[in-house]
TrEMBL record:
Classification lineage: Bacteria, Pseudomonadati, Pseudomonadota, Alphaproteobacteria, Hyphomicrobiales
Protein name according to UniProt: ATPase
Transport is among the record's keywords: yes
Keywords: ATP-binding, Nucleotide-binding, Transport
Gene expressing this chain: aapP
Domain named ABC transporter: residues: 25-259
Organism: Maritalea porphyrae
PROSITE patterns: ABC_TRANSPORTER_1 (PS00211), ABC_TRANSPORTER_2 (PS50893)
Amino acid sequence: MSEVEASDIKADRSKMHVSDTDVAIEINSMNKWYGDFHVLKDINLKVMKGERIVIAGPSGSGKSTLIRCINRLEEHQQGEIIVDGIELTNDLKRIDEVRREVGMVFQHFNLFPHLTIMENCTLAPMWVRGIPKAEAEATAMEYLEKVKIPEQADKFPGQLSGGQQQRVAIARSLCMNPNIMLFDEPTSALDPEMIKEVLEVMVNLAETGMTMLCVTHEMGFARQVANRVIFMDQGQIIEQNDPDNFFDNPQHERTKLFLSQIL
Ligand code: ADP
Ligand code: MG
């Protein structure tokens, strides 16, 4: 085969894959139980690359469980979850692959308390990805600058405020160069004055085109950043809409009740 033909095929292939690769996450008829408790019921969700989705809903509705299924911190029992083209099964290799693509930020930061901020940010890149220390440190510094705390690099998590620790947690995730970022109520453990600084970092991240799924009740953030708000109740996706319609014109009674309680 001539070089020209070979490169044509390559070009064709990349074209063929364009539609597939536009999808970041696809969930089809997914069900999950904790023992006898049916926690997620027939979940269907397609997230396109670069989309920013806010997940809202009352406590206990299954929001955390849903996003924990997406990076395989939890298993589902029925249906499909496909993340970046990788179907999540019980295959451990797949789980590893997926964790490389997906970063997660939790309510309670989950930094390693005995490691410095810099060490928190370089640990996984060095030991999971095999990146040389100097390079991992340079990348970490870049992200610490982006979250506006480069001067804290040599401190320990306990010496930082909650808002600063959460910004480190975001930087640490980004150091693994993920394609998708999951956030589970990243500001709900923070004092009001620190919420803004964390949301600002998340807004900046959204502007870079990152695919984001955020469980949050920060409605200002949702209106500013989300393409779509998904409302969950009792393990189901009850309704979804663009933020303005979601907040100003909720359809379902349960959505109206929820919004009346939080707004
Ligand atoms: P949310 O994040 O919306 O508050 P969760 O996903 O944390 O909801 O929880 C959904 C439901 O599943 C709740 O009723 C919760 O008590 C239950 N649940 C969560 N984790 C577990 C678990 N590991 N084992 C059993 N039940 C759980
Ligand atoms: Mg939760």
